[in-house]
Amino acid sequence: xxxxxxxxxxxxxxxxxxxxxxxxxxxxxxxxxxxxxxxxxxxxxxxxxxxxxxxxxxxxxxxxxxxxxxxxxxxxxxxxxxxxxxxxxxxxxxxxxxxxxxxxxxxxxxxxxxxxxxxxxxxxxxxxxxxxxxxxxxxxxxxxxxxxxxxxxxxxxxxxxxxxxxxxxxxxxxxxxxxxxxxxxxxxxxxxxxxxxxxxxxxxxxxxxxxxxxxxxxxxxxxxxxxxxxxxxxxxxxxxxxxxxxxxxxxxxxxxxxxxxxxxxxxxxxxxxxxxxxxxxxxxxxxxxxxxxxxxxxxxxxxxxxxxxxxxxxxxxxxxxxxxxxxxxxxxxxxxxxxxxxxxxxxxxxxxxxxxxxxxxxxxxxxxxxxxxxxxxxxxxxxxxxxxxxxxxxxxxxxxxxxxxxxxxxxxxxxxxxxxxxxxxxxxxxxxxxxxxxxxxxxxxxxxxxxxxxxxxxxxxxxxxxxxxxxxxxxxxxxxxxxxxxxxx
Length: 489
Ligand code: ADP
Hints:
This protein has helices spanning 48-64, 72-88, 90-99, 104-125, 161-174, 189-200, 215-224, 237-249, 274-286, 303-319, 338-353, 387-390, 406-413, 429-438, 472-477, and strands spanning 15-17, 20-22, 28-32, 39-44, 132-134, 140-148, 151-155, 178-182, 208-210, 228-234, 255-258, 263-267, 296-302, 357-360, 377-380, 397-403, 418-419, 421-425, 443-446, 462-463, 466-467, 480-488. By secondary structure, it is α/β, with parallel strands linked by helices. It has two domains: 6-259 and 465-488, Aldehyde Dehydrogenase, Chain A, domain 1 (3-Layer(aba) Sandwich); 264-453, Aldehyde Dehydrogenase, Chain A, domain 2 (3-Layer(aba) Sandwich), CATH 3.40.309.10. It is globular and about 70 Å long. Adenosine-5'-diphosphate binds next to α7 and α8. The active site is at residue 258. InterPro entries: Ald_DH/histidinol_DH (IPR016161), Ald_DH_C (IPR016163), Ald_DH_CS_GLU (IPR029510), Ald_DH_N (IPR016162), Aldehyde_DH_dom (IPR015590).
């Protein structure tokens, strides 16, 4: 039985620095449960002095403890033990489900195994990458030596708190760095539990630290801290731009930025079984209530199957039932909070004002307490400058556009701002490959939509969707810097 009582879950306290819970007082912020809007905790934001303390600790401990210099396989062993503890910890699953938008069954079946496996993937990377040796003169030896950066700042969003933390901490720690992680102020708790488990697994205290607070003070003090050598961020494009600018002005730090998206689902007449296709498109825009940067939110469908496919989607949307995240039967995620609910409502209203027709949904579910569950929504009669096509909504809203010729479909799939992902659905291999080449996006899924458990495949955006890669060998290598060496002998 996975259902639990949300009032009986014991919450970790405050910040987690040097293996200790810190209850520093400062600006208070309330933490709410997305499922019913109830305030269930108050935390205190880390100010610049506390951020400094966390970074200083990380800087010191990563050296003193030998984490940076130990045999890499030893780091791999600790990370594997950490992944095992993550998989066994029911409290972690409950904290994630209670405080975020993820139903408990989804957390247990997907989020936790996905988090643990990502860490295992980086445990395997720890000793697999080396530098290089160059042909120089007879009496010299040229080398490229990889070394960890030192302290890496990680800043994560509220939509997938655990797996986002694993994407940042896995490669950074495996490569021998320390991490100071600031989770979203909306979902602060599960990451602290994750860090406690890391210490239990044998990670030296102070090598992974969690600080709580919003972006304006805590996040920006972290990015600007002189001992932070690299910043890895997932979140909105606007915040990513601010972080890039701060990182440039405060030490020219390298950044990895995984940002927003407005990804197309390009469906051709020959895409195969329409029921399978409808399920795939449905998952693509409603998973986590549409609150995923990779959500496939623009259906671009060839005229021959447009009506049949949208009919099926409308029927699937009508089946969706909301339910609090701590019930085992719940499958559909609430929006994170009222602010996000109002944002979804305002973009839908603006879309309608510009001629969009609501095929299904378009409103908040009426039969829920204070949670913001938004009905899966299909909007037709939209052109490319409609706000629902232009803006990342971060809610379960799919726009529908149709086309007749391939060229026209490809033109509609392009987006002015974003280039994160795209889905291409056709059983014609040449057409699929033409589309893959033409689409300007960091990931193209063909006859599927969404990530698999293949952590070897990196992910990252083009255009306003970001810089650099998470996952894959690339993310590990981006957590080390290369030093050129020339030895005369
Ligand atoms: P959202 O509001 O959709 O969560 P953001 O991109 O604003 O998206 O937030 C993602 C993460 O970035 C959160 O942890 C947030 O606190 C943090 N953040 C916001 N602004 C800044 C900033 N100026 N500097 C550093 N971190 C920030």
